[in-house]
Amino acid sequence: MTERIVERRAEATRDTKETQITVVMDLDGAGTAHIDTPVPFFNHMLDAFTRHSLLDMRVEAEGDVDVDDHHTVEDIGIVMGSVLREALGTKAGIGRFGQALVPMDEALVLCALDISGRGQAFFEVPFQTQTIGGFDTQLVKEFFLAFARAAGITLHLRLVVGENSHHVAEACFKACGRALRQAVELDSRVTGIPSTKGSL
């Protein structure tokens, strides 16, 4: 008997007056990232997220960064979340929950998530500076809010300790990547949808 391999891959494009974004995601990848946005620090964060999630992901984006980076960062979160949701398909056989406690030098960030079908994020990560280089630290929260809502996941991010804003932000993206890796991985012992309701 030959087992059928279901491809867990999706892509989407969002084209508005503010942004033009394409995301391709493969849940069963090796952490290969191809990130091209006009926001250099955000590129670094998405690269870290991809490598630690073991997804393969391509992100190509243009946006009105002459205004500021907000629309581009938030819309990338929306498209990434939508693509993740589509790639998960029926969600049969997944681990569903994931958690990670990730250090980045003096910073320590906790991420816990549930592929619940209910898109919500609880972000308790204060930053001690308003910017990292030219990147507005408020946009870290905006990205994760947009991503969680569009993906239909319940996401918690908490700063345990940390001072350096770059370290704190990077720990957030790495922790989310590690937690997501656990949640989307297929578990041979899971039969069907991992929910008492029978759906997520």
Structure commentary:
Pathway: Amino-acid biosynthesis; L-histidine biosynthesis; L-histidine from 5-phospho-alpha-D-ribose 1-diphosphate: step 6/9. Its EC number is 4.2.1.19. It holds the Pfam family IGPD. It catalyses: D-erythro-1-(imidazol-4-yl)glycerol 3-phosphate = 3-(imidazol-4-yl)-2-oxopropyl phosphate + H2O. Keywords: Amino-acid biosynthesis, Cytoplasm, Histidine biosynthesis, Lyase. The two termini are 30 Å apart. The protein contains 4 helices and 10 strands; from the N terminus they run βββαβαβββββαβα. Strand 1 and strand 2 form a beta hairpin. The strands form 3 sheets. A 4-stranded mixed beta sheet has the order 1-2-4-3, with helices on one face. A 4-stranded mixed beta sheet has the order 5-6-10-7, with helices on one face. A two-stranded antiparallel sheet has the order 8-9. The model has no long low-confidence stretch (mean pLDDT 94). By secondary structure, the protein is α+β, with helices and mostly antiparallel strands.
Question: What is this structure's SSE topology?
Answer:
Layout: E1 9-15, E2 19-26, E3 33-36, H1 40-53, E4 56-63, H2 70-88, E5 97-104, E6 107-114, E7 120-124, E8 131-132, E9 135-136, H3 138-151, E10 154-161, H4 165-184
Parallel strand pairs: 3-4, 7-10
Antiparallel strand pairs: 1-2, 2-4, 5-6, 6-10, 8-9
Helix pairs in contact: 1-4, 2-3
